[in-house]
Specification:
The structure is a single chain. This protein has a five-stranded mixed beta barrel with strand order 1-3-4-5-6. It contains seven helices and six strands, in the order ββαβαβββααααα. α3 runs parallel beside α6 and α4 packs parallel to α6. Helices cover 32% and strands 23% of the residues. It has two domains: 135 residues, Roll (Archaeosine Trna-guanine Transglycosylase, Chain: A, domain 4), CATH 2.30.130.40; 84 residues, Up-down Bundle (Methane Monooxygenase Hydroxylase, Chain G, domain 1), CATH 1.20.58.1480. The radius of gyration is 20 Å and the shape is globular. InterPro entries: Lon_prtase_N, Lon_prtase_N_sf, PUA-like_sf. It comes from Streptomyces aurantiacus.
């Protein structure tokens, strides 16, 4: 098993290979991470791993909460993730390559990264200024009939988009090119469809592209059928927009 050690960035969301991740960094542990990444030579990738939080808090508590005003605050790299951070995170995450790391005057950072490779969490080190992890890189196997499944998913996704646009009383932008490479299709659809974190996590950790596409086909058909019978949709953008201050 080949492993790599990288800084670890837990989020209340799932990052997929090929997808862009904007971050607003203000916590000191993640500021320290970005300062170290900036030391990486410009011709080398500035990599860190993103994992979805299973049980914990993305932003560490800064004051005692109600009703217990005497609560002892946890500080340090693992604050918000309990005594054993490994248990607080989903097992499969994604490596992010930070193309842009811009420090602001107040010491916070504006970061723009892109997901690259899936990884499996092996262990977490809490001894430094921020979490680091030993990670096993996961190959993307195509599986059986991935090409045909990708075509079916794209058709279902276009139908889903049309239904969604109609339910929101909007016009659907036309002429947008969609990819045809099965793995790229599977990750694009996983990120674009309105799903909760557990559903997205299941898609990320699918054993191969074909398995991911099969699950997406089922999800798209189900979601399209639901939209067809709804007179209107809730304001889902309120929950789908960026919520992380980190």
């Amino acid at each position: 098993m080949t492993t790599v050690r990288l800084p670890l960035f837990p989020l209340n969301s799932v990052l997929f290979p090929g997808l862009v991740l904007p971050l607003n960094i203000f916590e000191e542990r993640y500021r320290a991470m970005m300062r170290d990444l900036l030391k990486t030579p410009e011709d080398e990738p500035r990599r860190f791993a993103v994992v979805a939080i299973r049980d914990g808090h993305e932003v560490a508590t800064t004051s005692p909460g109600m009703p217990d005003q005497t609560a002892v605050l946890r500080r340090g790299p693992s604050a918000g993730f309990g005594d054993d951070p490994v248990k607080a995170f989903h097992e499969v995450g994604c490596v992010a390559d930070a193309a842009t790391i811009r420090e602001r005057a107040d010491g916070s950072f504006e970061v723009l990264a892109t997901g690259t490779t899936r990884v499996r969490l092996v262990s977490v080190d809490t001894s430094g200024a921020y979490l680091t992890a030993e990670l096993e890189e996961l190959p993307e196997e195509p599986g059986e009939e991935a090409g045909a499944l990708a075509e079916g998913v794209l058709r279902a996704f276009r139908q889903y988009q049309k239904r969604l646009a109609g339910a929101r009383e909007r016009s659907l932008a036309t002429g947008a090119d969609l990819p045809d490479e099965p793995a790229v299709v599977s990750y694009l659809v996983a990120a674009a469809v309105m799903l909760d974190v557990p559903a997205r996590q299941r898609l990320l950790q699918a054993p191969d592209t074909a398995s991911r596409l099969r699950e997406e086909l089922t999800l798209l058909r189900a979601e399209t059928a639901i939209i067809r019978h709804l007179p209107s949709l809730p304001a889902s953008e309120l929950t789908r927009g960026p919520t992380s201050l980190n």
